[in-house]
Amino acid sequence: MKPALLANTLEEMIRETKKGHLDWLIELQSTDGLSDSLKHRIVEDDKEWIVDECFISFFCKFRGKDYLMITYEHIKRCGDQVRSDNLVFMPPLNVRYFDVGILSPYIVDANAVLLDRFHQLWMLVMDSYKNKDGHVTMKMFDPYD
Fold first, then answer.
1. Helix, strand, coil proportions of the chain in percent (round to 5)?
2. What are the Cα distances from residue 55, in Å, to 44, 132, 133, 141, 145?
3. Is the torsion defined by CA of 121, 127, 129, 131 positive or negative?
4. Taking Cα atoms as reference points, which of 41, 95, 35, 32 lies closest to residue 69?
C-alpha cells in the first residue's frame, strides 16, 4: 500500500475509533522498561550507544477488511544524544512476528505524515485502553522470550 493511501486510511480509522466504531488488538514488544544493563549496545562514531527496540502490532477490521500493521522503532542513546529510525510493515495476517528480517518483504515506505498518523492512532488507542472502554485489547510480550 502506498504511504499516502495508508495515511488517509489511518485518518479514517482514527475518526472511527474516536466514535467507538472500531475494536483494536494491540500487541507490543519493547525493551524500553528494561535496565540498561540488559539492552543491546553498539559502537558507532567511536561512541557506545544503548539500543531500545519497540514493535507495535495494530490489528482491526475496517470496512469488512482485516488490517494488520506493525510499526518498529529503533532508538539509540549515547549520553543526551538520541537517534531514532522508524519502519512500518503491512504483512499478511499469518506473519505476526516481531522480527525486522521476517517483516522486511512487507515494508511500507514511511514518511513523516504516515508516522504522525501512527503516533496519533497509538495515543488514541492508549487512551481507550486506559479508559477501559472495551474497544482495545492489549497484549505485551517480553523481548527476550
1. 30, 40, 30
2. 23, 22, 24, 10, 14
3. negative
4. 95
| Integer-rounded Cα radius of gyration of the chain | 16
Q: Are 5 and 36 in contact (CB under 8 A)?
A: no
pLDDT tens digit sequence for 69-79: 999 999 999 99
Query: Roughly how many angstroms between the first and final C-alpha of the chain, as a whole number?
Result: 31
Q: Residue 17: is it exposed, middle or buried by C-beta count within 10 angstroms (0-12/13-18/19+)?
A: buried
At position 85, the amino acid (one-letter code) is D
**26/123 Cα distance (integer angstroms):** 12
Per residue in 39-60, pLDDT (tens digit) is 999 999 899 999 999 999 999 9
Return the percentage of the chain with pLDDT > 90, whole number. 92
Residue type, 75: I
